[in-house]
Amino acid sequence: MNILLKSFLFFFLFFCGTTSISFAQLIDTPLFRITENSKVGFIDIDGNIIIPPKFIQAGNFSSQLAEARTEGLYGYINKKGEFEIKPQFEFATPFNEEYAIIYQNAKPLVIDKKGTIIVDNSNFVFISKFKNNLALITTHTGKKGFIDTKGSLVIDTVFSNVRNFENDMAIVYGLNNSYNQKSTSKEIKEEVGIIDRKGNFIIPYGKYTEINYFNEGYAIAERTIYDSNNDYVITKFVLNQKAKVILKYEQKNKITMGNHVHSGIIKMNMYKYWIKEESGVTWSGDKSYTAYMDLKGHIFMNNKSADEYGNDFLEDRVFIGEGFSKDRYKLFNKKGERLGNESFTTIQKEGFENGLAIVAQEKKWGILNKKGEFVLKPTFAGINNIQDSLFLFTGGEEKGDFDLEFIQNRTYGIANLKGEIILKPILKEFDRRGFVNGLLLGSLDKEGKQLVYINQEGKTVWQSSNIPKTVTLGLEYFNIDYMNRGYFYANSEKTDGIGGWGSSDNYSKEASDNIKIEKSNSKDSILISIDTEKVVPFAGRYKGRYVYISNISNREIEFNAQDSRLYAKMQALNKDGEWQDIEYLPSSWCGNSYHTMTLKPNHSWSFLTPIYKGDFKTQLRIALIVKENFRDESKSVILYSKPVLGSINLAQFWRKPNYSPGGIMDPYFD
């Protein structure tokens, strides 16, 4: 199973009898989502089934309501499991400040708790959740502004980007940028400023070229000017909560000032500029080190003789490392005094959070207090999520710098700050938020099929039924409400390029007799066919079909690919009778992802595609981009399969789920 399907299954399942609890009691009782037989229900903190699993999808409760669907359309249920707002929306989001964003025909609308639409503007393509009675909106042309809870435009759509309000101020970016040529200098005049909640400018455009977000009540702005030698000079300004300048610093000698204030301190990237550069060298990492500046402009902890790198201050403490030794990090306070005698190999999350820091010595992790003393000595292979004197730990022991067996088979348990084991390491995955309302969601398998809820005593209050990995009877349709990510992975003996980060063992085979018969009726060199005669397991539990991409010519054919994924996707006829994508091909920022594969004559690649199910009956087909124009898909050579009958949900035409890359080996952001 590829990484996409594993991730999908865990998060899909994330997202059963009644009890004597009254509805009045339920209003203040947190409920937790469970999944049985691919249906979502809810339990209380003790594992009692409050709402039996009957929903295809349901969200968490907010303002006593949760978005849910039993078929293709969403409504909102109460804590009895009854629909307070009947199913009628293509997609729905949680309530926030008594309002929710729903979607119809791919358009965002705002409803109140009665289901009444209060914002309906065809020009809006995005509406954020309300915060302090304001919501950010984006128009079809990409312009941004703010509306109130009545739908009135209170801050006009005259910005290209807006950062969230903080202390009643928001950093905004204009629609145009310009350069002001002067007699001796050229100043970059980016349209960036700060507005108040009425849209009035506190800092107008043209004053700064960048303003970084506020942190701890301070923001660092900068202004860039090119001098007569076309060298740029950057001056940075520290702004307080009233957007007033309290500190000005001109960067020079390759010394740069950080972009954020932490614990009233700014990290400085220093440079040993007084040491002569080698011929042809403009900057050397060997001459770079870390120091710190307070809000009065005083630079301290400036060890010019050392090769030191420091993190940002967090909770008045900082870890500073020197070189690459196993004990390179040491702990310091704001006076530059070293705290404790311990040294560390690695620091998690750069430092302290709620008075504790997770640190490693060699490959063992422990927990440190702000005095530099171990609350818990390094004994664990990994530590995560310290909450209420509990934390998740990694079982086993890592051997070597890259222990693949350890990484693939690691498990997680729960312990307290005394080092006592509350739950043995049996979890393969867990909710990275940790305990939520007293329960931790975890999985006993990497695919997320065997989910459990664990309380803070380490007791399992609920566990899902075991689902066989491969079944041939009782397969489910793939009923989703988003665009599926491309999954046509293949390989060939002959490739051009590095071959990408991905890999596949799907090599071509000699074409079947059925395909050879079709060859006589086809004028094309490539045939794409969907086998509608046979239903096979997709991802172990869903109904699927085989798709064949065949070379029916007498010559080799080259295909563009991306991390072993062909440019193939499924399309469906929309309400207007137009073919539209219901699957998408993500973009990689890494050039090594792109390569070609070769399909031999009279050979086929076989793939599995899900059988979708939804409220909207339509026709579906596979589209294959054989030769791609990277700038304009309309200029690519695209081939199609014959259409087949099917059904989908309307949100599959437009909704892309959020995606976060899983590290450097995952060069994707969509």
Would you write up a description of this structure?
This protein starts with a helix and ends in a 22-residue tail after the last strand. It is mostly beta strands and 670 residues long. The strands form 15 sheets. Strands 18, 19, 22, 23, 24 and 25 form a six-stranded antiparallel β-sheet that branches. Strands 47, 48, 49, 50 and 57 form a five-stranded antiparallel β-sheet that branches. The model is unreliable at 1-20, 179-185 and 468-473 (pLDDT under 50). It contains four helices and 60 strands.
Structural topology:
Blueprint: H1 3-14, H2 23-27, E1 32-36, E2 39-43, E3 49-55, E4 57-58, E5 66-69, E6 74-77, E7 83-89, E8 91-92, E9 100-104, E10 107-111, E11 117-119, E12 124-127, E13 135-139, E14 144-147, E15 153-159, E16 161-162, E17 169-173, E18 178-181, E19 186-189, E20 192-196, E21 201-203, E22 210-211, E23 219-226, E24 232-239, E25 245-250, E26 256-257, E27 265-271, E28 288-294, E29 299-300, E30 308-310, E31 317-322, E32 329-333, E33 346-347, E34 356-361, E35 364-369, E36 374-380, E37 383-387, E38 390-394, H3 404-409, E39 412-416, E40 421-427, E41 429-430, E42 439-443, E43 451-455, E44 460-463, E45 484-485, E46 495-496, E47 509-510, H4 513-519, E48 526-530, E49 536-538, E50 542-551, E51 557-562, E52 565-566, E53 568-573, E54 579-581, E55 583-584, E56 594-599, E57 603-610, E58 616-627, E59 637-640, E60 644-648
Parallel strand pairs: 45-55
Antiparallel strand pairs: 1-2, 2-3, 4-5, 5-6, 6-7, 8-9, 9-10, 10-11, 12-13, 13-14, 14-15, 16-17, 17-20, 18-19, 19-23, 20-21, 22-23, 23-24, 24-25, 26-27, 27-28, 28-29, 30-31, 31-32, 33-34, 34-35, 35-36, 37-38, 38-39, 39-40, 41-42, 42-43, 43-44, 46-56, 47-57, 48-50, 49-50, 50-57, 51-52, 51-56, ...
Organism: Bernardetia litoralis (strain ATCC 23117 / DSM 6794 / NBRC 15988 / NCIMB 1366 / Fx l1 / Sio-4)
InterPro entries: WG_beta_rep (IPR032774)
Pfam families: WG_beta_rep
